Amino acid sequence: MAVKYSFNEDKQFIIEDYDRAKTFASFLPGVAGIDGIPMWAYYVNRGQGLGSFGVKDKNNTIMEFFPAHLMYKNVELQGFRTFIKYNGQVHEIFSSASTDVVKRKMYIEKNLLKVEEVNDSLKLKVTVTYFTVPKESYAGLIRKVKLENLDKQEKTIEILDGLTQVLPYGISNGDYQAMANLMKSWFDVFNLENNIAYYKVRATTSDSAEVGEVNKGNFFLAFSSEEEGLIKPIIDMDLIFGANTSLTRAVNFEAETLDSIYSKKQIPENKVSGGFLAKEVILKNEVTLCSVYGHIASLELISSIKDRFNISYVETKEKEARLLAEELVEETYTKTSSHIFDEYINQCYMDNILRGGYPLVFEAGEKNHVYHVFSRKHGDLEREYNFFSLEPAYYSQGNGNFRDVNQNRRNDVLINPKVKEFNVKQFMDLIQADGYNPLSVKGSYFTFDKEKLTDILALAVDNNKGLVDIFSEKFTPGKLINYISDNEIKLNITKDEFVKTVLQHSTQGFEAEFGEGYWTDHWTYNMDLIENYLNIYPDKLQEFLFERKDYRFFDSAVRVLPRSEKYVLASGKVRQYDAIVEDEEKCHKLNISINDTNWLKKSNGLGEVYETNLYGKLISLAVNKFVNLDPMGIGIEMEANKPGWNDAMNGLPGIFGSSVNEAAELLRVINFIIEASESFDKTVEIYVEVAELINQVEALVDDNLCEKLSDFNYWDKVSDLKESYRDKIRFGIQGKEKGFGTRALSVIFRKFKVKLTKGLEKALEIGNGIYPTYMTYEAEEYEVIEGKRNPVNGYENVLVKKFKYVPIPLFLEAPARMLKSIKDKDQARELYEKIKQSKIYDSKLKMYKTSEPLDDTTYEIGRARAFTAGWLERESIFLHMEYKYLLGLLKAGLYEQYFEDIKTALVPFMDPKVYGRSTLENSSFIASSVNPDEAVHGRGFVSRLTGSTSEMLSMWFMMMAGKKVFSYEAGKLKLELKPILPHWMFDSSNEVSFKFLGNILVTYHNKNRKNTFGDNCTVVERICLKDSENQVYKIKGGIVEGQYAELVREGSIKNIDVYMI
Q1: Can you tell me the distance from the alpha carbon of 980 to that of 899, in angstroms, rounded to the nearest whole number?
Q2: Measuring CA to CA, which residue among 434, 190, 419, 433 is closest to residue 300?
Q3: CA quadruple 920, 924, 930, 932: dihedral, nearest 10
Q4: How far is Cα 813 from Cα 772, in angstroms, rounded to an integer?
Q5: What is the pTM of this model?
Q6: Packing angle of the helix pair 688-705, 614-626 (nearest 10 deg)
Q7: Going by DSSP bridges, is the β-strand pair 1053-1060/1000-1006 parallel, antiparallel, or unpaired?
Q8: Which CATH homologous superfamily contains domain 4-296+314-326?
Q9: pLDDT tens-digit series, residues 554-576
């Protein structure tokens, strides 16, 4: 059988002969519902698929974690195994060493994996189905093995099925891989007499005076469709494999019967145990064998629920697992002429949730609580460098990096309008007074209003003291429900209702910590959140900007050094190394830690937390970024140890790199400030330190624009102002404010815009019609500062008197970002054509690479230069950036170009034989045609959890609904759906449907099957709205106004039919 890829009506992606196909790694989503405990599970297309699984992170693995390239090698022996003895001969199902005549398939679903072997030699079909257990008090993986007899002859077979290695709870993956021989001294398996194997270490393994007993454990149990009760587990692998320590053959099983094996004593201690079921089966038609591998809080708990484990339970849980996934993606339902595109959108939404979280909205008076569940810091077999973490709790949430979480929440409000400005508030709060932000964004927590304690305790029958303890400190819904479940507390209402009631009387907070370094790009994603909020709530602009005065500033214990301390002489070259330091004096003075969530305070750090409105925060952010323009006034300086989005350009800060990408984004912010400032005539209060900076910078901009100050001298003086400002806010701010008129600020920011635009025009000229993404500089004139050295590396400090621009190759990122701000369609088209003709474009694959060739560039730019060409961030098709560029084409109005490009650049339209994995799933990057290995050209690597999902959802929303859906004119809310769809996306009924705002089914009826854009496009003739009570509202033309638009936005309308001519 040859390798073949297909997609069927059951939404399954199928790979025939999967174990001979191009290798890939992926994962089950690890979603158990808000009322379940999630388990992570990774799989590959070798062996029996499942490669590693566990709870929380790598340090709580049940099946050993390996990076992908090692998993491809190891999974067949260390993974799941199935041995069948028939007529005295042992056959290993799914083995690459098997000489049987077989056909194999892999079926991939959103929340389920299935592998199948049709064994013609045995006349057997073996199907293995995996899914993680939803809605339970334990984290579990169910493995269902179905044996089907393919001929009329009754067969008596003996089967051994299971896992050769089940690690006990209490041992980290790292310790096991480094010191397995020592670690197994702690290993033990308990409870075999009750047919549930319970794996744990006997005590903590750290070399410490504090030693504790371990109660939590991993478990294995099995049962069949043939009889009631649990099957006795085999955990001693010596009983199966004997002296064959390579595990290549089950030599004892080859020589002995199952009864003989069962009669031998199993040794559970001081060895690495496995978990197998053993069964003799008289096979007439079919038999199902099930195993559950999991993690649970105690042996008593698994013993108390053992009676529920039977075939009916597995069937129920399998349905629940499928339904859970489908319910999650209902909000992005799409129906076009391309079924795989429709399902691809759902998969993008699912994967977007896994990184950004799914927003649950709890009503709590005027301000709803938004609590993101199912998120985690991403990592997998191909991303082994990331220490992933998936909270093993009800209402599971996880930590993430600022950029990742921010990006993947971009579309929340477009899909669930009840989210409102929650994400804007959270991520704008995390912007510091110097314009930077912490890296690590932690989950939300709640603080309970103690005045309501008596009322809440009355809802618990036991009135448990433990609840009092929980409500006395910060808590999460998961912690609360875990406690109720673990302690079997009875409630007068359901757990869901109890959580909702508690949160109604609680205040929400969130935490973050510095992490490492300050990236130049993180702040840029906030503008996406702002624009999307206003796309749904344009009538709330004044309230949004000015009336909510509880925006704060994160205050980090890490500061950026001034030039006099970070510009150094290293090996005879002037460089910018170790530009940030932990501010120990600040930590001591304010009694804070680098790991704390700290907020900017008045009275120079000793007073109350300073609060302002969103407008004030944007003013502070914009001026802080504006004073970071480089010596030529073109890019935003990488002055704080880290680059921007492309982490592999990590050397750029050292060689005085700057980013045109962030200059493009600053232009967006300044344009927004100008427009908002001219829309209102208000006086706003700005904290005096930044107010003074604004006025001082304005004076220097005036001098620079009239050429009294050269670009270098302007940069030098502005940098002095910036450093002086940072000194003033180092410990906090005074708390005094200065009033500014919005019209006056508009005048100032128009000047800033002129300066910024001149720099971007200069950049376009330097790039010969393509915006360069990065600028780098070399110190031409400098002097050593006598007696001064960098506090971190000890290099001598220098004073730079003149810089020289040093060009590096062009990248895709700056054009992708600039397209969002280019209003002139002809200018955008010209930029597009230039890129298409450049070496950024991969003409073989018809896709866009990260950059031109880097061969002639210094290795100092970063690890990207050292990577193989066409691999990772070096000249590959990095899907996130290519999608950002495609989204830019849509925003710039280049619709024809966009729809031509997506035929080869969007994953669902790619050839899976080339892509090498499911074309429902994104990859981080696709190896480009400059890679020296032609076999990998066009092949996707590093699965799914990327920013590309967010870019795709943004494209999807724009394609389906239009650029700007709601507007507010003359005191009236208006809705205008203006889809951007080509004729070929309409189905055989000339229709396209999608869910608008998460729950409204919109159907476009295009009877003439025309494009909805361009010349001779469709025109909306009429619209029909239908509410939940089937009341129909008919509207002529394409605009829904007033109360009807409000009914749509609030979710009272369930169907919208748009008729086009």
Answers
A1: 10
A2: 190
A3: -90
A4: 9
A5: 0.96
A6: 40
A7: parallel
A8: Glycoside hydrolase, family 65, N-terminal domain (2.70.98.40)
A9: 999 999 999 999 999 999 999 99
Token pair 């929400």: residue: 508
Instruction: Note whether 4-296+314-326 and 335-344+811-952 share their fold.
Output: no
**Average pLDDT over the chain, rounded to whole?**
96
User: How many CA atoms lie within 13 Å of 534's alpha carbon, on the beta-carbon side?
Assistant: 14
CA-CA distances (angstroms) from residue 84 to 130, 421, 709, 886? 20, 59, 84, 52
- Using only C-alpha atoms, the chain has a radius of gyration, in whole angstroms, of 31
Parallel/antiparallel/unpaired status of strands 61-63 and 1032-1036:
unpaired
Q: What is the pLDDT of residue 206?
A: 64
Q: Locate 90 and state its tokens.
A: 């042992």
* The residue type at 461: V
Query: What are the tokens at 127?
Result: 């199907």
Name the E strands within 178-285: 187-190, 197-201, 217-224, 275-283
**What letters, b where the CB count within 10 A reaches 16 and e where it falls short, cover 427-465?**
bbbbbbbbbbbbbbbbbbbbebeeeeeeebeeebeeebe
- pLDDT of 366 > 90? The answer is no
In three-state secondary structure terms, 691 is helix
Which CATH architecture best describes the domain 335-344+811-952?
Alpha/alpha barrel (1.50)
φ, ψ of residue 110 to 5 degrees: the values are -60, -40
**pLDDT tens-place string over residues 733-747:** 999 999 999 999 999
- Smallest CA-to-CA distance from 718 within 619, 726, 654 is with 726
Percent of the chain with pLDDT over 70: 99
> Are the beta carbons of 69 and 78 closer than 8 angstroms?
no
Residues 6 or more apart from 1034 whose CB is under 8 A from it? 1022, 1023, 1024, 1025
Give the number of other CB atoms < 10 A from CB of residue 970.
5
What DSSP assignment string belongs to 35-96? Answer: TS---EEEEESSTTSEEEEESBSGGGEEE----HHHHHHHHHHHSEEEEEEETTEEEEET-T
Q: How far apart are CA 576 and CA 738, in angstroms?
A: 35
658 vs 1, 277, 637, 806, CA distance in Å?
Answer: 54, 60, 4, 11
Distance CA 34, CA 371 (A): 11
On whether the CB atoms of residues 915 and 26 are closer than 8 A, the answer is no
List C-alpha distances in Å: 235 to 136, 179, 188, 719: 25, 21, 10, 67
- Alpha carbon of 16 to those of 2, 103, 118, 362, 601: distances in Å? 7, 8, 11, 45, 62
Distance (Å, rounded) from C-alpha 979 to C-alpha 995? 13
Q: What is the pLDDT of residues 836-864, one digit of tens each?
A: 999 999 999 999 999 999 999 999 999 99
User: Are the beta carbons of 355 and 2 closer than 8 angstroms?
Assistant: no
Two tokens, residue 958: 């724009």
Taking alpha carbons only, the member of 99, 103, 98 closest to residue 4 is 103
Name the residue with tokens 């998936």.
390
Half-sphere exposure of 972 (CA within 13 A, CB side): 10
- H helices of 600-687, in order, are 602-605, 614-626, 660-679
CA dihedral sign, ordered 409, 410, 416, 419: positive
User: Token digits for 704?
Assistant: 């620079």
525-536 helix and 660-679 helix, angle to the nearest 10 degrees: 40
Domain borders along the chain are 4-296+314-326, 335-344+811-952, 962-1060
Angle, CA of 14, 18 and 24, to the nearest 5°: 95
- Spatial CA neighbour of 387 closest among 398, 395, 397: 398
**Residue-level pLDDT at 213:** 63
Q: Rounded CA gap, 911 and 284, in Å?
A: 41
Query: Which residues 6+ apart lie within 8 Å of 564 measured at CB?
Result: 785, 788, 797, 799
Rounded-to-integer distance, Cα 254 and Cα 560, Å: 68
